[in-house]
UniProtKB/TrEMBL annotation:
Cell compartments where the protein resides: Mitochondrion membrane
Name assigned to this protein: Mitochondrial substrate/solute carrier
Family statement: Belongs to the mitochondrial carrier (TC 2.A.29) family.
PANTHER family: SOLUTE CARRIER FAMILY 25
GO cellular component term, pick one: mitochondrial membrane
GO MF term list: thiamine pyrophosphate transmembrane transporter activity
Species lineage: Eukaryota, Viridiplantae, Streptophyta, Embryophyta, Tracheophyta
Topology term for the membrane: Multi-pass membrane protein
InterPro entries: MCP, MCP_dom_sf, MCP_transmembrane
Length: 335
């Protein structure tokens, strides 16, 4: 047996490390970015137009309009805890989601590279990185989707609450739409996650590769560097995650809006927050996109894009940095 093979970590150990590090990274990222996520969801499930040109011709006035005004309204009406509404199902979702995502990602990359070592994964072509990310995203989405739906339902409501807790929301969804209602919006989610996860992981690996080339080139030319290295600092990992999260979110946002509408259709909504999405309001994803475009314009497909973009950058950065650090810690301490 070769030395390289002896150095390969056991597949079970590697899977545990990736799943554990992914779960820790996802939980930290969700806690940090929850306020922006709540604001984004409030915009996305709101049927009333928010564009300035649309408001002039519409009798329907939106409850939420503008990032700072919405932040102030939520804080005044719901207090600081309002920004973490739906956080329990969000954490219950994000731990299995991120764990599955990173475990599948590592498995696919290991298969493609013929090695489970991270340094070999860094040499994969961008195309394989994109494909690996897309497959990992799909697997993670299917495994955690009901929690994602419950998070949306709870985060979209203000005060007074229609659903006091996750259990009441779960029972209402099952009674109204059946068990399949827990997977409402799964189709646009899977279609969204392919380019989103592909772009996120593909661009992250691309930015990492560029940064490693930069490090090797400039550290080797530095007279003060006696041991040039292409290893990345935590700040560089942060920047790579920030850039990848921003790019992927900007491209895929319209599908996220449609997904949120499917998730809340037919459910109760307090009148002070505007009209609710009626049951079976959209025949399918394309019909949903068309209806939103006709009634709310292009702006409707990008509702919540500002908090979403602001959130995507730190979310991606925090997730990847936390994953890299947690993975190193688990690998060093797991025997």
């Amino acid at each position: 047996m070769s030395g390289t093979e002896l150095d390969e970590p056991g597949q079970l150990k590697r899977a545990v490390i990736d799943a554990s590090a992914g779960g820790v990274a996802g939980a930290i990222s969700r806690m940090v970015t929850s306020p922006l996520d709540v604001i984004k969801i409030r915009f996305q499930v709101q049927l009333e137009p928010t564009a300035t040109w649309a408001l002039k011709d519409s009798q329907l006035k939106p409850k939420y309009n503008g990032l700072f005004r919405t932040t102030k309204d939520i804080f005044r009406e719901e207090g600081l805890s309002g920004f973490w509404r739906g956080n329990v199902p969000a954490l219950l979702m994000v731990v299995p989601y991120t764990s599955i995502q990173f475990a599948v990602l590592h498995k696919v990359k290991s298969f493609a590279a013929g090695s489970s070592k991270a340094e070999n994964h860094a040499q994969l072509s961008p195309y394989l990185s994109y494909i690996s990310g897309a497959l990992a995203g799909c697997a993670a989405t299917v495994g955690s989707y009901p929690f994602d739906l419950l998070r949306t339902v709870l985060a979209s409501q203000g005060e007074p609450k229609v659903y006091p807790n996750m259990r009441s929301a779960f029972l209402s969804i099952v009674q109204t739409r059946g068990i399949k209602g827990l997977y409402a919006g799964l189709s646009p989610t899977l279609i969204e996650i392919i380019p989103y996860a592909g772009l996120q992981f593909g661009t992250y690996d691309t930015f990492k590769r560029w940064s490693m080339v930069y490090n090797k080139r400039y550290r080797s030319s530095s007279s003060s560097s006696t041991n040039p290295s292409d290893s990345l600092s935590s700040f560089q990992l942060f920047l790579c995650g920030l850039a990848s999260g921003t790019v992927s979110k900007l491209v895929c946002h319209p599908l996220d809006v449609v997904k949120k509408r499917f998730q809340v259709e037919g459910l109760q909504r307090h009148p002070k927050y505007g009209a609710r999405v009626e049951l079976n309001a959209y025949k399918n994803m394309f019909d949903g996109l068309g209806q939103i475009l006709r009634s709310e314009g292009w702006h409707g497909l990008y509702k919540g894009i500002v908090p979403s973009t602001i959130k995507a950058a730190p979310a991606g950065a925090v997730t990847f940095v936390a994953y890299e650090l947690a993975s190193d810690w688990f690998e060093a301490n797991l025997t």
